[in-house]
Structures
1.
Amino acid sequence: MIGEALWEILKEHHGYSDEDLMRRVAKIDLKDGKLDGKVAKTAPVQCPRCSRILNKRHALCIYCGEQIVHPPFAR
Ligand SMILES: [Zn+2]
């Protein structure tokens, strides 16, 4: 519901159309080169300090304690 409400606000206040939204959705879908209705999987997370590969759910590196900054839309 929140996504739908935000979209209504954007349409009413900024003049975007449903076609604008669908073009953007297709662009995001195509990030992995396939228009398949699925978002691209993000690459594994690598610690910026010790370079070890980490599970995406960790906020801190389990090996060295470095804070891991995840992209806001990472999956
Ligand atoms: Zn680390």
2.
Amino acid sequence: MCPLCGGSGWRQVIGSANQQVTRCNCFVSAQVNSLLAASDIPARYAACTFSNYKTESNPALAVARITLEKWANQYPLDRTGLLLIGPSGVGKTHLAVAALKELTTKGVHARFCDYRELLKQIQNSYNPSVQATELEVLRPVFEAEVLLLDDLGAVKPSEWVWDTVSLVLNARYNANLTTIITTNFMDGPSAAVDSARRANREETLGDRIGERMRSRLFEMCRLVQVQGRDYRPNFRAANLR
Ligand SMILES: Nc1ncnc2c1ncn2[C@@H]1O[C@H](COP(=O)(O)OP(=O)(O)O)[C@@H](O)[C@H]1O
Ligand SMILES: [Mg+2]
Ligand SMILES: [Zn+2]
């Protein structure tokens, strides 16, 4: 039992004239812990913070970190989301998770969602032997005050994938909810509207999620470039050769 409040969750404000009370620290930290537990941040990223994100070697990463840190500190003054674009392994998910954790300490209901996993779960829900319905899978994604949609575009595009991305992004857009997105795909129009460059070019965000959702993203999010080398040691070693 908490020695400060005896378990009530309230304590008297020291020196207050009219026995003013405030939330005890124990209540606040219990609330943060339950928000963190509900945030679904994968164990692999549980320790990611702004302070353990290394930027010495790369000013571009320092700018990205400062941008996310400021954004998390000022939320909810500006509810515009963030779109983190950069190659694999530069720490996009690390930074986005750090922001998510910062928000939970402010009492925000924030949630991690892996794009590939989400699409898999939705597809599973069509199987009659699976208990969860499509709506049950989607409800947390529709309702989270702040959603991190991680690795957008990681699933090979199809009509169904495009429709599903539209469903998710439009729901959040219409409800005016904040979304943080990370993606390995560089920004650019889909081949359908970029016929001049269609031949042997790298796939773009437009190709992966469709042109309509690409422009919707830019209404929902501010672009943050995360440009650097793959941080993971085995990849760095491979780059030396
Ligand atoms: N600048 C960095 N400082 C510390 N750790 C980093 C940094 N960049 C990446 N990492 C770590 O490397 C791993 C891969 O990063 P991740 O965020 O998954 O990259 P991305 O999402 O861009 O593919 C993670 O364990 C992450 O914590
Ligand atoms: Mg990632
Ligand atoms: Zn207490």
